[in-house]
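Can't paste images in this forum, so I'm doing it all in text. The chain is below; anyone willing to post the predicted structure tokens underneath?
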Amino acid sequence: MRTLIALFALTGCEIVLEPYPSNNGHSHDDHTHDSYESPHSSYSHGPVILGTDPHCGYDSMYSDYVWDFHADISHSYYASEIADVWVDVYDGIYLVYASDMLLIDFDPYSDVGEWATWTTEYYTDLYCDSYIEYTVETYAIDFDGNYTVQVDYI
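Text version of the structure:
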């Protein structure tokens, strides 16, 4: 142990141990994502997330809760420039669900694509009827690497 302390003192390394929070990570006061730039481009070209709609509800057809994630996305040029859209869901700092979204509808007049994904609760670590507050991050990236992120709390 003394050797480790001397090694850390000589190298300037610092180890910080953070236990799992006592509130089970269900507070988002200490987990925000204000550091994202939207979009990531020197000319402000890229995807534009016009709106997102993450929600959960009971579906009698599946006899389970179903999580739906929808996003309406455009682009500063053409919506066909969108390369990929995905959603990440966090419980505090822990990633509990991640999925690619599929283009399910496209309006050529407004140049807006509707992207979506869904899953039953059985296959995830998501719990619809609990007190847990989730952070839902929806990402859109174009073929040039420009991206944007929409963050929702549900």
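Residues 46-153 form a domain with the Immunoglobulin-like fold (CATH 2.60.40.10). The longest strand covers residues 47-59.
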